[in-house]
Design a protein that fits this description.
This protein has 127 residues and is mainly alpha-helical. The radius of gyration is 19 Å and the shape is elongated. It has two domains: 1-90, Winged helix-like DNA-binding domain superfamily/Winged helix DNA-binding domain (Arc Repressor Mutant, subunit A, Orthogonal Bundle); 92-127. It contains six helices and two strands. It has a two-stranded antiparallel ribbon.
C-alpha cells in the first residue's frame, strides 16, 4: 500500500494552494492552479486528499469548502522528517552537510550566526 503521506505533484500543488488560501472551493483551487485540470479532476484530487487525511471538505450550500487538516508548520515538519529518513538516514547533520557543501549555497553571515546560535541553544537543552 502506498504511503498516505506521499503526495503526487497535483496533490502537492493543491495542498500548497490550500495552505496559501486557508480555505477554498474547488473553483478557487482550480483558478490558482498552473495549467489547471478539469473541475471534475480537481474534485477527484480533493477526494483523494480527504481520504489520505490531508484536508476536510465542509458542505456550504451547493458546494464544498476545503481546508487543510494540519497547520502548515506541522505538515512541514512531517515532510522534512520524511526527507530526512528517505535521503539522509534520519540524520540532520547529513542533510545540512549536503546542503551547505553545495557550490551554490549562499548563506549570509547573519544566517550562519543564527544557525550557530540555534545549534548552541539545542545543545544546551540536551545537557
Amino acid at each position: 500500500m502506498p504511503n498516505q503521506n506521499q503526495l503526487s505533484r497535483r496533490e502537492r500543488q493543491i495542498m500548497d494552494i490550500l495552505y496559501a488560501l486557508g480555505k477554498a472551493t474547488t473553483e478557487d483551487i482550480r483558478r490558482e492552479m498552473e495549467d489547471p485540470p478539469t473541475g471534475n479532476a480537481v474534485r477527484t484530487f480533493l477526494q483523494i486528499l480527504e481520504a489520505k487525511g490531508h484536508l476536510r471538505r465542509i458542505k456550504a450550500g451547493k458546494e464544498y469548502i476545503c481546508e487543510p487538516t494540519k497547520n502548515r508548520a506541522r505538515a512541514g515538519i512531517q515532510a522534512f522528517q520524511h526527507v530526512l529518513e528517505t535521503f539522509y538516514e534520519g540524520s540532520i547533520e547529513r542533510a545540512l552537510t549536503a546542503h551547505l557543501t553545495r557550490k551554490r549555497t549562499e548563506l549570509t553571515q547573519s544566517e550562519y550566526d543564527r544557525l550557530r546560535q540555534l545549534i548552541d541553544d539545542a545543545s544546551k537543552k540536551e545537557e
